[in-house]
Amino acid sequence: MTATEPHLVVEHLVAGYVPDVPILRGASLLVHPGELVTVLGPNGAGKSTLIKAIAGMVPVKEGDVRVSGKSIRGIATHALVGAGVAYVPQTNNVFTRLSVEENLELGCISDIPRTRERIEETYRLFPDLARLRRLAAGRLSGGQRQMVAVGRALMARPSLIMLDEPSAGLSPKMTDMVFQKLLEVRAGGVTILLVEQNAKAALAICDRGYVLAEGRDRFTGTGAELLSSPEVGELYLGSKSRLAS
Amino acid sequence: MMQLLVDGIVAASFITLGVIGLSMVFNILNFPSFAQGDQITTGAYMALAIATLFGSAGSAGGLSVGWCVIIALPCAIVLNSLLALGIDRAIYRQLRLRGASRISMIMASFGVSLMLRNVIVMFAGQDPHFFTFDIQPALRFWGIRIAVNELIVVGVTIVLVLCLHLFLSRTTLGKSMRAVAENPSLARVNGIDVDRVIRWTWIIGTGLATVAGVLLGFTVQLHPFMGFELLLPMFAALIVGGMTNIYGVLLGALLIGLVEGLTVEYLAPEYRQAAPFAAIILVLLFKPHGIFGEKA
After folding, report:
1. C-alpha dist (Å) from residue A39 to A44, B69, B268
2. A105 reaches B (C-beta below 8 A)
3. Minimal Cα–Cα distance from B193 to chain A, Å?
4. DSSP calls for B191-227
5. Which of the 8 DSSP states describes residue A207?
6. Pairing of strands A60-67, A36-40
7. What are phi and psi of B62, to 5 degrees?
């Protein structure tokens, strides 16, 4: 990857769960190294499908996905970690019957000798998890589960982490805490692609954002630009009001 | 009463070794394999064939069988596991790739069960076979009768169950298996090769089934229905223990073994096969997901 080369390139992606019924109808986006980019859009816009298509979990019919210049279209999902990409699903994102520490261990399956060292690093980033290490993940609160899910994704030392609505079901306080942690992760040099329904919170922390509608990228800009755009406000609120207002 | 307990534990040992594979396949491949019983039979017959090749030289320690059977066991484990992997690749995997429903997988396992049993009948006939014709006198401890073979059966089962516990709780592959059993999609995202986990599921499940078959052959006889007859108690253990909890399933196996023993002692031997049914009904009336099961 050269200095100017984007970290993630999604080009004219056409994808869907059922053949001939595409959810994504030519979505494109770029994420540069070290950026935190958010993907927004109303319900049914194809945000989660986009992230799943990148992760090889939804069949891609047309278009391409490149990470650091290499195509990962059609990659087996379990090989994604080897390509330096981690994905945190929106729901069911922890192994509830396994302990917190076992969840973290499974994140390091590609580099088993370094598991202990990385678990300690994860505990430094999420100190609460150290206290909960022996507890079954199914007994954690929503916010604690998100910490486990993000911590486990980071265990493989990905260069790019994709998160699907990490604030879903969380209180505003927990959302702030999770987003602060994402900023810390980004500060560590990890590129982040964040799919979010909570537009205001996501745009407040992102470098750039994309707004998806009907399976296509409709608007792009910095967080501030999108927050003050009447068109984006209309897409979300049904009127020319701005999201920032 | 102590004698009943000992007999129940011996019966539970066979059920335990068989039901582990059943439980692993159910949790990881998401269907109950009706061929699990017949994999016990194929394991026993494979060991018999290999032992016959080696000859039957003397007895091993206090056992009624010769060293040739002991040597044949690991060979049979390898062969039977390879057979299970071949069946998975040729049948179950093809169905998985086509997105087959659970009921299709169950019907396929019925087919595999019939196929295995008939292949055994074709090669070995319907008549029973024996690892040995030697009669082994029972040992007596504090008024409890137990044959050395039965002592070995219980000992081997305890050691294998402990090994399985350590494997599932301490090794990366074991934890990966538990992860795939709970959420295969998330397991894939984490870089776990689910196909590899499935292969090991067959190897471990069939390996233990082979041990169960050979141990069953030590204590009674080999016949084409020996594993199939264990299927009902195995399913009873699975349901009573709670389908999703391997440790619950082990306790379920012990309970079913004891219930069978009590039935033989206090009712009549002909009710033995009905006992697991009664246990299933009783437990499900009070615990619909089994003793240690979780709501699906």
Report:
1. 13, 64, 70
2. yes
3. 6
4. T--HHHHHHHHHHHHHHHHHHHHHHHHHHS-B-TTTT
5. S
6. unpaired
7. -90, 5
Residue A165 lies in a domain: yes
Q: What is the DSSP letter of B138?
A: P
- Cβ pair A80, A154 in contact under 8 A: no
Q: What is the pLDDT of residue B131?
A: 81
DSSP string of A101-134?
HHHHHHHTTTSGGGHHHHHHHHHHHSHHHHHTTT
Residue type, A140: L
Contacts of A92 in chain B (CB under 8 A): 183, 185-186
Q: Closest Cα to residue B17, out of B276, B282, B269, B233?
A: B233
Q: At what angle do helices A115-125 and A142-155 cross, to 10 degrees?
A: 140
- CA A235/CA A212 separation, integer angstroms: 10
Length of chain B: 296
How much is the pLDDT for B71?
A: 87
Q: Which domain holds residue A55?
A: 8-92+157-237
Residue A78 lies in a domain: yes
- Bridge-based pairing state of the strands A191-195 and A160-164: parallel
What is the pLDDT, as a whole number, of residue A237?
58
Largest CA distance in chain A: 55
Query: Which residue in A111, A196, A93 sits closest to A151, CA to CA?
Result: A93
The predicted pLDDT at position B41 comes to 97
The 3-state DSSP class for residue A80 equals coil
CA distance B262 to chain A (A): 35
- Residue contact A106–B175, C-beta within 8 A: yes
Which domain CATH number covers A215?
A: 3.40.50.300
Q: Give the closest-approach CA distance of B20 to chain A in angstroms.
A: 18
> How far lies A88's CA from each of A83, A119, B34, in Å?
15, 18, 37
Residue with tokens 């016949």: B223
- B/e letters for A124-137, b = 16+ CB within 10 Å, e = fewer, are eebeebeebeeebb
Hey, are the CB atoms on B188 and A152 less than 8 Å from each other? no
Rounded distance, CA B1 to CA B7, Å?
10
For residue A171, give both structure tokens. Answer: 């209180």
Task: Tell me the ipTM for this assembly.
Answer: 0.88
Sign of CA dihedral B75, B80, B81, B86: positive
Q: What pLDDT does residue B56 have?
A: 58
**pLDDT band (50, 70, 90) for residue B290:** confident
Q: Is residue A109 part of a domain?
A: no
Which among B6, B10, B33 has a CA at the least distance from the CA of B205?
Answer: B33
3-class secondary-structure state, position B142? coil
Helix B2-29 × helix B148-170 angle, to 10°: 40
- Residue A231 located in a structural domain: yes
State how many domains chain A has.
1
Give the residue with greater pLDDT, B134 vs A203: A203
- Give the number of other CB atoms < 10 A from CB of residue B203: 18
Intervals of chain A under pLDDT 50: none
Q: Using the beta-carbon criterion (under 8 Å), do A57 and B185 form an inter-chain contact?
A: yes
